[in-house]
Structure formats: C-alpha cells, structure tokens
Design a protein that fits this description.
Elements: H1 2-26, E1 30-46, H2 49-54, E2 55-58, E3 60-72, E4 77-94, E5 100-122, E6 131-156, E7 159-166, E8 176-179, E9 185-198, E10 203-214, E11 224-225, E12 237-253, H3 254-258
C-alpha cells in the first residue's frame, strides 16, 4: 500500500511537470521568480500505535530558504515549483529508557504546487481607502525532499552527548548516530494558501502558509544505532510541517529575454481591476506590450 501511494505521488509530480513544460511553451509569456525565506514548526508522527505509546515527539522550530517560481498555466491556474534548503528534525522522549533525542536534519526540498488564483480588492477598510488589488490563492501538490545530513544531542538524567548523523562506516564511533537503510528521498503532500501583493516595476510580494503531510517513513523501527548502553531508537515515522514564508518575486518577459532585451523597467499592459489606477491583476492576465 505504501509503495502504491508513493508511486501515485511520483506520477502526479511527473504529470504536473509535463503540464508545466507544455503549457509554458505553448501559452506562457510571463512568469515570476525570486528568493524566499520562511519559518516553520515541525514534528514527527509514528506509523504504529505501539510506537506512539512508547515515544513522545515534541514540536521543534526551524527555517527554510530558497528560490520560488510562479508560472501561469490556464486561466486562474499557475504552477509553483521551488528549490529550497529546509530544516527539519525531531525531538523525542523515549518513555521506557528515559532518553531524549534532539536532532536537526538538513534537506534539499523540491515542492511542486498547482495553485488556483483569485483576484480580489477590499473597497473599504475602516478609515482607509481602497486596499488592493491583490490576489489570494490555494493549492496542492507533491513535496519531494532529500536528506543531506544532520546532528543531534542525546540527553538523559542531566547528562548530554552530542553527535553527528552518519549513513555508514561509523557504527563503532560514539560521536555518530548511524542511520541504517533510511529513505533519504522522501515524499509528502503540500497544502497551501496565500496572498500575492503587487509592488512597483512588475514585482510582487507573496506570503504563503503551507502544511506538509509527510508520507514516506524515515526508516525502520530499529533503523538507527549508537554504541551507548541502553540506547534505543525508532525511525518508522514521517514529518508534519507548518511553514510560513515570504517571497520577493520579479516579473519576467520571456519574449524580451529571447530578443536579448532586459525586462527591468519594461511596462506590461494589464486589465484593470477596480479602476484606471489599478495595479496589474496578476501574471495570468499579463499582455505583451506592442512595439
């Protein structure tokens, strides 16, 4: 069953990539790209009820940073691929042994979200004038990530021991916790909602709240080891992550790029939203300026 779900998510991701390539080549003339940074709260969820009774996972906090793209597809739809460095990890109290495992894991993360985007405007906000235009969106898509490495601290009865995470070759070293046959490639499903706020010169500020439901388990029940008496661990768990991020996006004209012209300062005609002084609706309604 797990293999079937993993294959389904994988095929869904490939399908979205194929749609992206076809639609971008056939229709899209404009897209957005820019840096992003976010903060997140995360924990792990065990697969078996027996493990849930034995291990008590806590919530940890971290950050992620990377590059975000926003590519228009059909009307009101856009594709949102990202390339991120992200911190995850785990803080677990083992009730039977009294050990506390506190780790930070480093990941390369590749989300691929299909968003539905809606134009909006707040006509009055108390004593303020019209607010907007802006866009809000919601979406869903696969999350693929690769475990690069990590480190942690093992605590018990007031004592602590720092270590690094190893994947092989350090089984007899007290300074390493060895992960055996772990799933370094991991799949999950992302759900997000957010706002796109237009700025000057074809720039946008995108605020996103995202929940990642991890599906792939990190490893097996006895998937890690350290040569310390009484130490036990269980890697049969997956991630749950809540992330809040901000991206500063630059609008780019593919037609101008192909001609070797700079897009900086280029004006793009758009349909107005709510009046003559309105700013661009969003990248899905951009039209190329006539020469």
């Amino acid at each position: 069953m797990k293999r079937f779900v993993n294959q389904t998510i994988f095929l869904f991701a490939l399908g979205l990539i194929l749609v992206q390539l076809i639609s971008f080549k056939a229709h899209a003339q404009y897209f957005m790209a820019g840096p992003k940074i976010g903060v997140q709260a995360y924990t792990v969820s065990y697969q078996l009820n027996t493990a849930k009774e034995q291990y008590d996972p806590k919530v940890k906090f971290g950050f992620n940073a990377g590059v975000e793209f926003n590519i228009p597809l059909a009307k009101n739809f856009n594709l949102n691929p990202e390339i991120n460095y992200t911190q995850r990890g785990r803080k677990i109290y083992a009730q039977e042994t009294g050990w506390t495992i506190n780790e930070v894991h480093h990941y390369l993360e590749l989300p691929l979200i299909l968003n539905f985007q809606v134009e909006s405007r707040i006509k009055k906000l108390g004593p303020l004038k019209n607010v907007g235009p802006f866009s809000w969106f919601f979406g869903i898509g696969p999350n693929m990530s690769y475990l690069l490495g990590g480190s942690g601290t093992l605590e018990t009865q007031g004592n602590s021991h720092d270590y690094k995470i190893s994947f092989e070759g350090n089984e007899g070293d007290y300074n390493y916790l060895t992960f055996h046959d772990v799933n370094r490639w991991q799949w999950g499903l992302d759900f997000n909602i957010g706002l796109i706020s237009p700025l000057k010169n074809n720039k946008n500020l995108i605020t996103t709240l995202r929940f990642t439901y991890g599906h792939t388990a990190l490893g097996e029940e006895d998937g890690s080891s350290m040569p310390i008496l009484g130490f036990t661990d269980n890697l049969n768990h997956s991630y749950r992550v809540l992330n809040l991020s901000i991206a500063y996006m630059f609008g780019m004209d593919v037609g101008l790029l192909r001609k070797g012209k700079s897009t900086k300062g280029a004006k793009i005609k758009t349909k107005n939203v709510g009046g003559k002084s309105s700013k661009p609706k969003n990248i899905n309604t951009f039209k190329k300026k006539k020469n």
